[in-house]
What we know:
Layout: H1 2-16, H2 28-50, E1 60-62, E2 68-72, H3 73-76, E3 82-87, E4 91-98, E5 104-108, E6 121-124, E7 127-130, E8 136-138, E9 157-159, E10 162-166, H4 167-171
Parallel strand pairs: 1-3
Antiparallel strand pairs: 2-10, 3-4, 4-5, 6-7, 7-8, 9-10
Amino acid sequence: MGKKKNRKSSFKESLEKPEPRAGGKAGSGKGLSIGIVAGVLIAAAVAFILIGGGPSSGFKTVSAEAGVVKVPLSEVNDGHAHFYSFNGSKKINFFVLKSSDGVIRAAFDACDVCYASKKGYRQEGDTMVCNNCGQRFPSTKINEIKGGCNPAPLDRKVDGSNLIMRTQDIETGAFYF
């Protein structure tokens, strides 16, 4: 009878403790694989959120009337970058923000250096940050400095309660996209 007890406990123990696999601990292969896959998925989700979901995420589509695009100032006077897309000769992305000095500014969501990556910019506090190279640009310098990795300026003017951009000015940025 003693042998039966040993067999039962051996059988029970074998169910609770799997045999070690070659080159590793018991059951570690499957668990490790699942852990790695889960980690990669979490990292990808975090990157997607931080970068804004890519170049077309979060863009509000605007259209033109009589050759101009109008954006209500009430939509952009909060100090946050607002991203827009205009469908002209091709889809052209730009952003508008009220900088810390109170000026409404506009720029293409691209620059002369990194435009081929099509990653654009994101806002961090009072700066716009290139999603490709990480360069940082104070909001007060948008439309003031051009070239290099600076956000490519977009001509605009304030008219009453709207920011006005001519479609021909928006179209000048088509080659970035």
